[in-house]
């Protein structure tokens, strides 16, 4: 955390000068007034300058990025983090060698990290953000796999005229399946069970 | 490993100073015990243990190259 102490004739002057030194804006900083200063007699005798301490707070997104990097480091993975923000959606793109450790079996480590980051970001901010953590295009690859799987199992359901249950998946993966089969008139899909065992059922 | 658990948990809680992690070595497993400030318990366990599960998943990912199985006890 960067921090400076500045002086000025009034508190406002001091704050402005501190913000200038830190090259930041007021909403990204915390301001602590140490001395309000005194005007003094006729502005000459016994005047005291105002003193303020201003420190820059990292935005929640920046903090989350550091957190992610820190964890990757401790797992022995050298990962680059690319952060992008669009409306209320924050995406962290991870890339590097040994990234498989961060993805885990069926993306479970990636999903866990995503959940933790979402908590941390929303804990320190007043707006609600959705967080997506992706590694080396994993989400897109997984989406293609799921769409293929959905189509294959839909055919199976039609051929056997029996319901087909899929394995439990997180909500956005189920959504991919539902969306993929939305226009298939031969079957209907619904989700069954309670989290974390909620899964898609394809019904002919 | 202790440092990893600590850095995962710290931003989640309101009283980071009260995080205590102890390590115990048993025959085939390493047991880490995590305890936090009483008001923070909910923040590391979560609804239906969702947060606890996420923390464990990340911690277990780190154990892939160590021979001993790792367990994480919370509270």
Low-confidence sequence ranges of chain B = none
Q: Return the structural class of chain A.
A: alpha+beta
Total of helices of chain A: 6
What CATH calls the topology of chain B is GMP Synthetase, Chain A, domain 3
User: Could you say how many structural domains of chain B there are in total?
Assistant: 1
Family (chain B): Belongs to the KhpA RNA-binding protein family.
GO molecular function, one term (chain B): RNA binding
Organism (chain B): Aquibacillus salsiterrae
InterPro entries (chain B): KH_dom-like_a/b, KH_sf_prok-type, KhpA
Question: How are the secondary structure elements laid out?
Answer:
The complex is a heterodimer of chains A (204) and B (75).
Chain A: E1 3-8, H1 11-22, E2 29-35, E3 50-56, H2 60-74, E4 79-86, E5 89-96, H3 100-103, H4 108-123, E6 130-135, H5 138-160, E7 164-165, H6 171-181, E8 188-192, E9 199-203
Parallel strand pairs in A: 5-6
Antiparallel strand pairs in A: 1-3, 2-3, 4-5, 7-9, 8-9
Helix pairs in contact in A: 2-4, 5-6
Chain B: H1 2-9, E1 20-25, E2 29-35, H2 41-45, H3 50-62, E3 69-74
Parallel strand pairs in B: 2-3
Antiparallel strand pairs in B: 1-2
Pfam family, one (chain A): Jag_N
Region (Jag_N domain) (chain A): 5-55
Protein name (chain A): RNA-binding protein KhpB
What's a concise summary of this model?
Chain A contains 6 helices and 9 strands, in the order βαββαββααβαβαββ. Chain A is of the alpha+beta class and 204 residues long. Chain B has a 3-stranded mixed sheet.
């Amino acid at each position: 955390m960067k921090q400076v102490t500045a002086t000025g004739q009034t508190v406002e002057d001091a704050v402005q000068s501190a913000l200038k030194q830190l090259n930041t804006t007021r909403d990204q900083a915390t301001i602590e007034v140490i001395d309000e200063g005194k005007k003094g007699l006729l502005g000459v005798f016994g005047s005291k300058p105002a003193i303020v301490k201003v420190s820059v707070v990292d935005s929640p997104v920046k903090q989350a990025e550091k957190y992610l990097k820190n964890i990757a480091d401790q797992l022995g993975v050298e990962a680059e983090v690319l952060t992008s923000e669009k409306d209320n959606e924050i995406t962290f793109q991870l890339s590097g060698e040994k990234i498989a450790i961060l993805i885990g079996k069926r993306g479970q480590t990636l999903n866990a990290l995503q959940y933790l980051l979402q908590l941390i970001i929303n804990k320190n901010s007043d707006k609600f953000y959705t967080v997506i953590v992706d590694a080396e295009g994993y989400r897109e690859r997984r989406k293609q796999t799921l769409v293929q799987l959905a189509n294959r199992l839909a055919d199976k359901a039609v051929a056997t005229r029996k319901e087909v249950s899929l394995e439990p998946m997180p909500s956005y993966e189920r959504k991919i399946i539902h969306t993929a089969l939305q226009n298939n008139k031969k079957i209907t899909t619904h989700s069954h069970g309670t989290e974390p065992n909620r899964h898609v059922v394809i019904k002919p | 490993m202790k440092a990893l658990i600590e850095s995962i948990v710290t931003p989640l809680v309101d009283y980071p100073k009260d995080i205590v992690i102890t390590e115990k070595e048993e025959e085939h497993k390493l047991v880490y015990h995590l305890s936090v400030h009483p008001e923070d318990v909910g923040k590391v366990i979560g609804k239906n243990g969702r947060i606890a599960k996420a923390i464990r998943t990340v911690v277990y990912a780190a154990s892939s190259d160590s021979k001993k199985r790792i367990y994480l006890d919370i509270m």
